[in-house]
Design brief:
Blueprint (H helix, E strand, L loop, with lengths): L1 H12 L4 E9 L2 E8 L1 H4 L6 H13 L8 E6 L3 H9 L4 E6 L16 H7 L6 E3 L4 H5 L18
Parallel strand pairs: 3-4, 4-5
Antiparallel strand pairs: 1-2, 1-3
Bound molecules: zinc ion.
Length: 155
Amino acid sequence: MQRALDFAREGDATPGASPIGCVIVFEGKIVAEGHNEVGLRHDPTAHAEIVTIRRACEKLGRDDLRGATLYSTLQPCGMCTMASVWTSIGRVVYGAGRDHVHRMYFEDRHLDTMDFMRDAYRDDMALVGGVLKAECAALYYGPDDEPPREEQANT
Ligand SMILES: [Zn+2]
């Protein structure tokens, strides 16, 4: 998670990128790292998790990540959770949860990462939240902050 935080900070310092970092570990080694590149690529699907899943699959030369662990500084959104399900990732670990940050970081009102995972056919995925929660949450607007409207993707 510390490495994911490093990537989140790199994303924060990169014009067009955002401070969400992700690392994928497979067989005890980091196989891919990334941060949100939505503005950089003009690609609304270029969330940190998607970017990192693509890199990990390309590096490993496989289209599933069974047995791998995905670390993200922020609780994965629905799209990234489903991407994790589709790649058969073994474990998802996140830092700040949706209750610790502003609602602008999520596109749905009620569905949670756990809802997507609970409803998946797979029942062998693990989810762990709140790892380095304070450090991760410090990267984002808090629940009661009032971010500038132009920064809010879900409005
Ligand atoms: Zn996402």
